[in-house]
Amino acid sequence: MAPSILRQSLAKIGDLSDEEWALLKGTATPKEFKRGERLLNEGDICRAYFFVEKGYLRTYYNKDGVEINLQFSFEGDFTTNFKSLKNEKPSHFIIEAGEKSRVWIFDREKMKPLYFEKEAIGLLLRRLAMQLLLSSEEYSNLYKISTPTQRYEYIERHKPHLLQRLSLSQLSSYLGVTRETLSRIRSASAR
Amino acid sequence: MAPSILRQSLAKIGDLSDEEWALLKGTATPKEFKRGERLLNEGDICRAYFFVEKGYLRTYYNKDGVEINLQFSFEGDFTTNFKSLKNEKPSHFIIEAGEKSRVWIFDREKMKPLYFEKEAIGLLLRRLAMQLLLSSEEYSNLYKISTPTQRYEYIERHKPHLLQRLSLSQLSSYLGVTRETLSRIRSASAR
DNA sequence: ATAATTTTGTGACGAACTTCACAAGGTGAT
DNA sequence: ATCACCTTGTGAAGTTCGTCACAAAATTAT
Asked: Is residue A40 situated within a structural domain?
């Protein structure tokens, strides 16, 4: 049988024996979400890692009624809200399905014993956490260091799938500009 | 004998026995840096965590000849460049002393065996990494979500020591504005 | 297919920030 | 105390981006 996209994605992070893989998988539940359905609500405590098998997830913040996108997670990606997960504090962010999506929900409480009992699982989870945090740091530096136009060019070069899968409006708040400005950046760069 | 500021700071992150503490301390070397001396140079691979005993460190990026501050680390703080440390890739950032400083340099290679042999040390180091990355995430969200004036107010409320220890020019690039703009924000907020 | 709804493009205008220039105020060295 | 150097304050002009308004295009529902 062909390995699942889930197992493939995990294999990129660390090696697990068949037994360990079965144990880890046992902590997760697959679930379907319709476009707009929420995996994490503002004010709730985040208790899981999410793995996207199909579709995509959108992490956003509600600023005076305007949604500001902080992250998009596509097929093969993991995501969560670390600050809420680690500190067991209410989340300021919302995670919802950007389109009809199939997601594996890794329950933190179920994973906890494995974390200590199985060295390889603990190592893999730590690496996963590190990867997620590092990519968030990278995004934050992009944000700080460059102008809106440069940010758009960065996306064109390094994350072109974002341009294909997201509407201009969704992308604009991720880049920190209005949709009008992004529209103008795009029409200027077409020349 | 009174516990050192180093041991006090570590105690806030996790518990270590006297033996573990001695082992961990053995991986570190204290060093003095004059104002402007560099702990990490652009293009070099970061191989250590830095603990500030006295003075402060400045992490910045050189953008077309203009320095952009990304982080300040004061007495009792740890810092490093994670991306470079973890991936063993050349650093894009520079870490240097903002004033005459005394720093403990925790060598990554020396720490590595302890990480696996001593459970408590591994746990503490993971927590430390998590804290550093979460604070960087928090800063990035501040940056994204608010206007320059709001960012300044955030600093006033949550990190007033920055206002006392840093020059206006240093702070301005950290807030993502020119020094002129920060000067104007400040004179407006004085009323 | 057609209508309704949502998304995108574009112009006009204003606000916020940058750039440039220079004066004033501090700080350190001799 | 004086000079040199560095930092801060402030005005004027220019840019960029946001806001508002509306038309065009695309998508979805019926």
From this structure: yes
- Type of residue numbered B22: A
Give pLDDT tens digits for A132-149: 988 888 888 888 888 999
A166 domain-assigned: no
Q: Which residues pair with A94 in a beta bridge?
A: A60
In this structure, is residue B176 part of a structural domain? no
Range of the domain at B63: 5-109
- How far apart CA A5 and CA A3 sit, in angstroms, is 7
SS3 state at A188 = helix
Residue A121: both structure tokens together: 């699982």
For A51, B6, B160, B161, the CA distances from B164, given in Å and listed in that order, are: 44, 23, 7, 5
Nearest CB to A130; choose among B86, B139, B145:
B86
CA of B81 to C1' of D27 (A): 46
If we measure between CA atoms, which residue out of A48, A44, A46 comes closest to residue A28?
Answer: A48
Residues with Cβ within 8 Å of residue A19, at least 6 apart in sequence = none
Helices (H), chain A: 5-11, 18-25, 82-87, 108-117, 119-145, 148-158, 160-165, 168-175, 179-189
C-alpha–C-alpha distance, residues B21 and B10, integer Å: 9
- The token pair at A131 is 């990867």
A138 contacts B140? CB cut-off 8 A: no
User: SS3 for chain B, per residue?
Assistant: CCCCHHHHHHHHHCCCCHHHHHHHHCCEEEEEECCCCEEECCCCECCEEEEEEECCEEEEEEECCEEEEEEEECCCCEECCHHHHHHCCECCEEEEECCCEEEEEEEHHHHHHHHHHCHHHHHHHHHHHHHHHHHHHHHHHHHHHCCHHHHHHHHHHHCHHHHHHCCHHHHHHHHCCCHHHHHHHHHHHCC
For residue B67, being part of any structural domain is answered with yes
CA dist., res. B102 & res. B53, Å (int): 5
Domain count of the fold of chain A: 1
pTM of the model: 0.90
Per-residue pLDDT of A32-70, as tens digits, reads: 999 999 999 999 999 999 999 999 999 998 887 789 999
Q: CA-nearest residue of chain A to B144?
A: A176
CATH code for the domain of B80 = 2.60.120.10
Take residue A108 and report the two structure tokens written for it: 């933190």
**B167 C-beta less than 7 Å away from strand D:** yes
